Amino acid sequence: MAVTADIAHRIPAGWYPDRDDRSRRRWWNGVEWTEYFSANPDTLAPGPHVHSIRRAITFKDRVAAFMLAGLLLANLVLIGFVAHVI
């Protein structure tokens, strides 16, 4: 299965099974496959270009998270106001 540009940016950097040889893993740098392989999946070290999860989260994901946080905060303020009035 090919990785399309639409979903490639959502896949976090890390070691993944190599599709050509399942006995090893290959490093995905968050954008494309690299030439780095690991022969022993049990002793995987961090890859050459370790990226934080922050790079895997898109702007749309952040907007949705901020909107949910804002709604939660608004509800807490409203509950506090109602409890104070009653």
Describe this structure in words.
By secondary structure, the chain is of the alpha+beta class. The protein has two domains: 1-51, no CATH class; 54-86. 36% of the residues lie in helices and 16% in strands. The protein is built from two helices and three strands. It has helices at 5-8, 59-85; strands at residues 14-17, 25-28, 33-38. The protein has a three-stranded antiparallel beta sheet with strand order 1-2-3, with no helix packed on it. β2 and β3 form a beta hairpin. 6% of the residues are buried.
Keywords:
rod-shaped, 2 helices, 16% strand, 2 domains, 86 residues, alpha+beta, three-stranded antiparallel beta sheet, single chain
Outline the fold blueprint.
Layout: H1 5-8, E1 14-17, E2 25-28, E3 33-38, H2 59-85
Antiparallel strand pairs: 1-2, 2-3
Brief characterization of the structure:
With 86 residues, this protein is an alpha+beta fold. It has two helices and three strands. The chain has helices spanning 5-8, 59-85, and strands at residues 14-17, 25-28, 33-38.
